[in-house]
Design brief:
The protein has about 180 residues and is α/β, with parallel strands linked by helices. It has six helices and five strands; from the N terminus they run αβαβαβαβαβα. A five-stranded parallel beta sheet has the order 2-1-3-4-5, sandwiched between helices. Helix 2 links the parallel strand 1 and strand 2.
C-alpha cells in the first residue's frame, strides 16, 4: 500500500466512531465544598464521564433546561437553592438524580423518589461507591429516557413543594434539636 494511502486510512480510522467505547454520560455535579467537588469531578472524568461542576443550586437550575445531562449528582445543602430543588427540576427533564448528604435522610425510598431523587449517596462516600451509584442511576435513567419525547415532564410535582418552598424543612434530619 502506498504511504499516502496508508496515512489516509489511519486518519479515517481515528475519526471513525469507536463502538467498543462509546462516549460516556454527561454529569452535572452540584457541590459547594470545593475540595470534594474537585475530587469527585476528577474521579468521574478519569472514569470517562463528561463532568460539568457548579457550586450552587441556582446555577444548576439555570443549566438544566439548556443542557443535555444524563445524570445530576447534587449536595442536599447548597447556597441559593437546595439539592432537593435541583432534583425536582432535573426530574422534570427526566434526568436521574443522586442526592449527596452528610445528614441522615429520614424518608422512605418512596418519599425520596416523590421529591425527584433516585439514589442517596451518604457523606462520606467512597469513590468506588459513588461510581456504583452513578452506574445504577444511569442504567435506570436510560429506561426512563426511552419513555420521554425530549420535552420536560410537566406532570412531575415534587411532594411537599407547596408546603415547603425551600424543599428542605422536613426532608433532612439534622440531628438532635438543642
Amino acid at each position: 500500500m502506498p504511504p499516502a494511502r496508508k496515512r489516509h486510512s489511519e486518519a479515517s480510522r481515528r475519526r471513525a466512531p469507536n463502538h467498543k467505547n462509546p462516549p460516556r454520560a454527561r454529569i452535572l455535579l452540584v457541590e459547594d465544598h470545593e475540595p470534594l467537588a474537585a475530587l469527585r469531578a476528577a474521579f468521574l472524568a478519569q472514569q470517562g464521564y463528561q463532568v460539568a461542576c457548579v457550586r450552587d443550586g441556582q446555577k444548576a437550575l439555570r443549566l438544566l433546561p439548556g443542557q443535555s445531562f444524563d445524570l445530576v449528582i447534587t449536595d442536599s445543602e447548597l447556597p441559593h437553592a437546595s439539592g432537593w430543588e435541583v432534583a425536582s427540576v432535573a426530574k422534570r427533564w427526566r434526568v436521574p438524580v443522586i442526592l449527596s448528604s452528610g445528614w441522615p435522610v429520614r424518608l422512605s425510598p418512596e418519599q425520596i423518589a416523590m421529591r425527584g431523587v433516585d439514589l442517596v449517596a451518604p457523606k462520606p462516600c467512597t469513590l468506588q461507591h459513588l461510581l456504583e451509584l452513578v452506574q445504577t442511576a444511569l442504567a435506570r435513567g436510560v429506561l426512563r429516557a426511552n419513555e420521554g419525547n425530549g420535552e420536560p415532564d410537566s406532570s412531575f410535582r415534587p411532594a411537599g413543594a407547596a408546603a415547603h418552598p425551600d424543599g428542605t424543612k422536613d426532608l433532612v434530619q439534622r440531628g438532635p434539636a438543642k
